[in-house]
Amino acid sequence: MAPSAAANSPPSPENTECNLQPFFVLHKALPSNSERKSMEKTASRKRTRRRIDLSPSSPKSSEQSEAEFAGDHHLRTDAFRYVWSKIDSTIKNVLRNINADVFNDILFWVQESFNTTCSCGMPDRAKATRSYPVVTGPLSKQIYTGLVFTQNMELVDDLLTFKDLGLHLTSHGCHVANLSSFDFSAKNGIDGCLRGLLRQFLLANLDVADMSILASWYIDQGNYENPMVVIIDDMERCCGSVLSQFILMLSEWTVKMPIILIVGVATTVDALSSILPSYALQYLSCHKFILGSPADRMEAVIEAVLVKQCSGFSVGHNVAIFLRNYFFRQDGTLTSFVRALKIAIVQHISMEPLSFMLKGLSDEDSQDLWSESPVFLPELFKRAFDLPSFRRNELTETNEEILARGLSDLKRLKELWSSAVMCLYEAGKGHKITMFDLYCETLDPELHHSRVSDHHLGLETKVGMSSSDHQIRERLQNCGFIHQVIRKVRDLPEVLLCQLLKNWEKHTKGIIEIHAKVRELQSSLKFEDDKGLKQGLTDLSKRQKIQSNFNIEKDAKRLNEKTTELIIWMVKNYMLPIECIPFHEIICFTNVSKLQSALIGDPRRTIQVDLLEFHKILKCKCCSKSGNNPLPSMHDTSIMYVLTQEHGDLINLHDWYQSFKASILHPRIKRKHRLKHSPSPKKKMDTSESRKKSEASVQAQFSRAVTELQITGLLRMPTKRRPDYVQRVAFGL
Amino acid sequence: MGKEESPQVVTRRTTRSSSSSTPNSKNLETTKSCNPQPMTINDLVFGDEHISFDDLISSLPGRRSQIHELVRLLGPLNSPTIPLFIYGGTSTGKTSVVLQIFRYLNRPFVYTSCRTCYNPRVLFESILNQLSLHRKDVGNGYSSAKRCERPSDFVNLLREALLTVVNNLKGHLENSSSKKSIGRISGKMVYLIIDNLELVREWDKSANLLPFLFKLYAILMLPEVGLVYISNTSPDTYYSDTGYIEPIPVYFPDYTEEDLRQIFLRNQANQKLYSSFLEVVLRPFCRTTRRVDELSAAFSPLFKKYCEPLSDLGISPSEEMKRRLFSHLQPHIMPSLNEVFKISSRPSSEGESNKEKANRQGCTQRLRGCPAIDEIDFHMSTSAKYLLISAFLASRNPATLDASLFDSTGGSDNRKRKRNSSVKSMEHKEAAEQELLMKGPGTFPLERLLAIFQCITSVEEYTLEEEEPGTNSLGVESGDSGLMSDVLLQVSSLCNANFISKGGSCPLDGSTRYRSTASEDMALKVARSLKFPLSKYLYRR
Predict the structure, then answer these.
(1) What CATH number is attached to the domain comprising A194?
(2) CB-based contact (8 Å) between B297 and chain A?
(3) Residues in chain B within 8 Å Cβ distance of A330
(4) Is A294 exposed, middle or buried (0-12, 13-18, 19+ CB in 10 A)?
(5) Does B262 touch chain A (CB under 8 A)?
(6) Which of A87, B81, B294, B362 is least surrounded by Cβ atoms within 10 Å, i.e. has the fewest?
(7) Domain range for residue A647?
(8) Where is the composition biased (Basic and acidic residues) (chain A) (predicted)?
(9) Among A576, A595, A617, which residue terminates a domain?
(10) Closest-CA residue of chain B to A225
(11) The total number of structural domains that make up chain A
(12) Does B12 contact A at CB distance below 8 Å?
C-alpha cells in the first residue's frame, strides 16, 4: 500500500487507478470539477454525506467527497486509521486505568468472600451433586453480592466496563459468567437465565438447563479452588420476578458451589429494593463498589486525548464547546462523545486535503511531511499557503522552508499549550474546576486576544486583590476558569504549593523555558524551607521565633505571588489557542455545524425534506421541472405530502382524497393533447393503463400513502371523535 | 470498618443439621484424587454417619412433637405409608427435620425441590436420574438418563425405575443379612420427597400437574413407595377435590421465643455472653418475625456490635457489664428492626469517595427512601433530568391543569379560584385526592410528556439567560443547540432505568401510555440539581 516508492514524483496513472475503490469510481462518474473543494457542492450534498457518515465504522466513506484530489485518498485513509487507532487505544488505556482500583477492590472482595464461604466447610463431591440441600447454618444461604454503582443512568459506557471486569476476574482464576438483562427477561423466564449461565460456564448449549449440571461441572473443574462469579450488568432492566427466582435458586445451591454475584446498578440502591421482593433481598449480603463517575472519566479522556495530544488531531473552540454541551446536556455518555470525536475526525480528514499530514506531524521520527504525497509539491504548497491562518500573517514569500518551520512551530506551540493547560488543571484540581471547562476556555481565541492586548493579567498582580477596578471585574467574569485557578494558586498553603510545583515540574518536562522557571521556584522554596527550619532550630528565644514564623509566612506569601506570576506568564506567553496558530487547519477541526448535523440527526425533518424535494434524490427528468405542483409521475406519498401543505392541522379526508385523485388523473387530459404530437408506443400503453385505473385502485393508492405518512410520523389517523379528519403532526421544516 | 476482614468464630454457627466439617475435609482429599465412582444404591440414603434418636431430637430444638409424629407416620421398617403433607411457614425447619429423620432412619429417599427443578421436565428427570443412579457429568454431556416431559411418560419410567430400585434393595437386604458390616440401608421402601410444592401452582397453568403429583401414589400402586410433600402453604390452598387419597397433613408451627433462644444458643462459643445478648434482642425482634433466617441475618451484625466494647470474647458478663453492653447496643436495635437489607462497603484506597462511603456505611437503606442525601448520586444529562421532571409532573398533575400551569396568564387565576372554594367542593376535592392516592401516579401519552418538556425547558432557558447573563458563557452560546435532539432516546433510557414505566400498546397507534415511577424525593432532588422550582408546578389539591 505504501506509495513511498514513488516519492516526490507524481505517481503513474496505473498506480492511482488500481487504488481506486469501487465506491470511489461510482462517485467519480458524477460531474466533478477540478477546482479546489467547493463549499457549495458539499453543502448541497450535505444530507447524503451525513447519512454515510453516520456509520462511523467505515472510514472509507470519508474520502469519497474529494474526487479531485485523487491520489491522496489512501493517504488520508491511512491518516485516519493512524489517528483513530491512537485515540482509540488511548481512550481504552485511560478507562482501564480509571477502573483498575475498583477492579482490584472487587477482586479482593471476591477472594475474601470465597474464603469465608469455604472456611465453613465445603461438602464433598457426592454431597454436592445430591439433590437435597446442605445446610450449614441459617446464614449459609446468603449470597455474597457486589453492587457496582456505575453512577450513570445510561448503560452504554459500562457494557465494556463489565466485560473488562469479567476478564480481570478470569485472569485471576475466577470462573466468570457475564449475564445481561436479556437473560432475565420475563419471556424466557428462569429457563433462559440458567441456559445463559450454563452457556457461559460450560461453553455448551444444553437441552435442559439445570443447576445440578452447574454443580457437577464446577466440581469437575477442581475442587473448590476458584470462586464462581456471575456478573449481571444492568440490574434495572431485569425482570424482577425472574431475578428473584434466580436469587432464590442460587441461595439453595450456594453451599454446594460458592457463587458470587456482581450486580451493576445504574441509579440508586432503592432500585434494587423496588425490583426485588424482600424475601429475595434477604438472601443478598451486599457490598458496595463505586465506579468512576462519567464526569471523571470524561476529564481523564479529555486530558489524555485532546490536551496531551496523543494523535495530533485537535478541535477548535466551537467544536469543543459543542462537545461539552452535548455531553452534559444531551447524552451524557462517553460512548457518544467518542463517536462524536470519531465523526469529527472523519469529517476533518474528508474535508481538509492537507489532513494527510496528521500522521507525519504526530510521528516523532518522520521529517519529510510531504514526501509521501503523490501530489505535485507546488500544488501542496499553494494549498498550504492558501490557508486563511497563514494568509493572516501577510507573508508574501512562500517556500518549502516556511511551511516546514510553520509546521514544526505548530507542533511546538501545541505542546506548550498543552503543558500550560495541564499546569492550570493541576492547580485547579481540588477546586471543582473541571478539565472540560478549562479546556474549552483555553481554546478560545478571542479570550486569548483580549489577554494579550490588554495587560490586565500582569497588571492585576501588581495591584493586588484590593483593586476594585470595574474593568478588572468585568474581565474577571470573562475569563472565569483561568482566573479562578490563578486566584486559587494565590491562596494556596505552602504544602500544597510544594506539591503543585512538583506536579508542574512533571508536566513541563521537555519544555525548557517553563521547566527552568518551575525548577527555580522549587529550589527557592526548598531553600526557604531549610532556612525556616534552621532558624527554628537555632533561635530559641520566643520573640525571635515569632519573628521567624512571621518571616516564613511572609516568604510563603511571596512564593505564592511568584507562583502566580509564573502561571500568568505561562498563560500569556505560552498558551496560544490552536486556532491562532498558522497552519492549524491541517490538524484542527472547526466546523461545528457539520458535526452537529451529523450527530444530532433530524430524522423527521429529513423525511419531510425528502418527501417534498424527492427529485433531488431521484434525479428523474419527469418531475424535476414541476415546481410545487404535484404530477402524476411523482410518488404517491410525495403527492399526498405536497397536498397536505395546503391544509391546517386538520385535514378533511374527503377533500384530500379528491385532490389526490385529481392530481393523479387530471394532468392526463393535458398530456393527451401532447400525445397527439408525439405518440410513442410506450406512453400510449401507459395511458390506456391509467384510464383503466378504477376508483378502487386510486383508493388503494390513497390509503397506502396515508398509512406511509402515518408510519413516518407525519400524520395521526382519524379518531373516533372526528372520523373524517386526519391530524397533521409535523409542521414546518 | 473491618467487619468482613475478621470473621469471628463466634458468629459462625457451623451446623444446624450437623454436617460436621472434619469428615468432609477428609473426604475432600480422597475425592480430589480419584475419579468419581459410579453411584451405588447407598447413595440413596443421607450421606453422613448415623445419628441416634436423642441426637435427632436435640439437634432440632422445638421440633420434638413433629419429629415424633413423623416417625410414627413413617412407621416401622418396610411398612407402607400414606403420603405425608408437611406444611408450615418459611424457615420453620420442615426440610431439615425430614432430612434428619431420614438420616436417622437410614432409609433410601429421593429429594427434589421445585425451586431448583423449575419446570415439570426438570422435576421428572431429576427424580428419574436419582432413582437410576445417574449423574450428569462431562462423560454423558450433562444429559439426563431418560428424556421425559409428559406425566404419562413419567409414570411409566418412574414405575420401571422404582421397581429396579426396590429389587436392588431386596437383593441388598439379603446380602447384608449375611454380611452385616456393609448394610447401611434399612428397609426396601423408597421415599420421594418433593419440596417447595407451592411453587408448582405457579408454573402449572392448566392445573393438571398438581393433581397428578398428589395422585402419584394411587397411580403407581406400589406399596414400596412413600411420598412426602413439603410446602409452606396449608393443604387448603391446593385443589383437593379431584379424588386422590388425601395426604396426611403435618403442621410445623412457628418457633416460640424459647425455641428460638435454644436454636440461637446452639453452637455458640460463649453461651453466657450470647444468652445475655439474646435477652436484649430476641423479644423486640420476635414481635416482627420468627423466621430463623431473617433473625440470624439481623443478629449477626448486632452481635458484632454488642461485642465491640469487649476485649476478651470468652468472659461471662456480669450484671453491670450486661447493662453497659446493652446501653451500647440499644441505639442500633431500632434501625436494625426497620432495615430490609443492608449494604456494607469496604474502605478503599480512593480518597475522594471515601467520605461519601463513610457516610453510607452506617446509613442503611430503608424501604421508604431516606431523605438524608441531598444530591442524586448518579449522572444524568440535563435533558434527561428535565424529562424526568416533566414525566413526574405529567403523572401527578391532572391533564386539565396543564394549560393553566404552563400558560403565563392562566396560573394565577386558577389559584384564586381554588382559594374561594366552598366546603362542599373541598369535600369533593378530598375524595378526589383520596382516589388519586389510591390510584398512584397517573398515566400520560407521550405527546403530553413532550409538551410539558418543551414548556419547562423553554421557560428554564429563558430565566437562565435573564438572571445570570455573565456566568454561563459556555451555555449561552449553545442555546440554539437546545435540548430537543434525542428526547425519544432519553425517554427510552429513562424507561430502562425504571423511572418511567411504559404500558404496552400498539406502537403504530402512538397511544402508548407512560407512567412516572420516580418517587417524589427523587424528583425533588433532580429539580434541586437543576434549580427548577418543581413545587411551583406541582398541583397540591
Answers:
(1) 3.40.50
(2) yes
(3) 381-383, 483, 485-486
(4) buried
(5) no
(6) B362
(7) 603-728
(8) 34-43, 683-695
(9) A576
(10) B32
(11) 3
(12) yes
Distance, CA of A136 to CA of A140 (rounded, Å): 6
Task: Give the nearest chain B residue to A121 (CA atoms).
Answer: B21
Indicate whether A547 and A629 sit together in one domain.
no
Residue A1 has pLDDT above 60, yes or no: no
- The distance of A315 to chain B (nearest Cα, Å) reads 16
Q: Is B427 on the interface with A (CB under 8 A)?
A: no
Three-state secondary structure along B34-80?
CCCCCCCHHHHCCCCCCCCHHHHHHHCCCCHHHHHHHHHHHCCCCCC
Q: What is the Cα–Cα distance from A217 to B486, expressed in whole angstroms?
A: 46
CB–CB of A484/A431 below 8 Å? yes
What is the rounded average pLDDT of the residues A147-170? 86
In a domain, A112, yes or no: no
Residue B427 distance to chain A (closest CA, Å): 33
Strands (E), A502-552: none
Question: Which residues make beta-bridge pairs with B111?
Answer: B193
Q: Which of A243, A267, A292 is the last residue of a domain?
A: A292
Are A212 and B116 a contacting pair at CB < 8 A? yes
Is A509 in the same domain as A555?
A: yes
Are A130 and A273 within one domain? yes
Question: Could you tell me the CATH superfamily of domain B21-252?
Answer: P-loop containing nucleotide triphosphate hydrolases (3.40.50.300)
B14: distance to nearest CA of chain A, Å?
Answer: 6
Q: Do the domain assignments include residue A272?
A: yes
Nearest-CA distance B56 → chain A (Å):
15
Residue among A201, A325, A599, A709 with most chain B CBs within 10 A, to mutate: A325
- Provide ipTM, 2 decimals: 0.80
- Are residues B142 and A151, on separate chains, in Cβ contact within 8 Å? no
Q: Report the distance separating Cα A319 and Cα A589, nearest Å.
A: 7
Q: Which of A107, A118, A124, A721 to mutate against chain B (most B CBs within 10 Å)?
A: A124
Check whether residue A453 and residue A568 sit in a common domain.
yes
Residue ranges with strand state E in B107-163: 109-113
User: Are A162 and A149 within 8 A, CB to CB?
Assistant: no
Are residues A629 and A550 part of one domain? no
Same domain, yes or no: A550 and A663 = no
pLDDT in tens, B420-478: 556 677 777 777 777 766 777 778 888 888 888 888 887 766 554 443 333 333 333 33
Q: What is residue A107's predicted lDDT score, i.e. its pLDDT?
A: 92
Whole-number mean pLDDT of chain A? 73
Name A726's bridge partners. Answer: A651
C-alpha cell at A709: 405518512
Is A109 a domain residue?
Answer: no
Query: Same structural domain for residues A493 and A616?
Result: no
Per-residue model confidence as pLDDT tens digits over A503-550 = 887 777 777 777 777 777 777 776 665 555 555 445 445 555 555 566
Is the CB of B116 less than 8 angstroms away from the CB of A131?
Answer: yes
Assigned domain for A670 exists: yes
Tell me the CA distances in angstroms from B537 to B448, B456, B513, B532, one per residue in order: 15, 10, 22, 10
Q: Are A511 and A416 in contact (CB under 8 A)?
A: yes
For A266-304, write each residue's pLDDT tens digit: 888 778 888 888 888 888 888 888 888 888 888 888 888
On whether both A184 and A284 belong to a single domain, the answer is yes
User: If we measure between CA atoms, which residue out of B124, B98, B43 comes closest to residue A133?
Assistant: B98
Q: Rounded distance, CA A585 to CA A591, Å?
A: 11
A347 vs A591: CA distance, rounded Å: 9
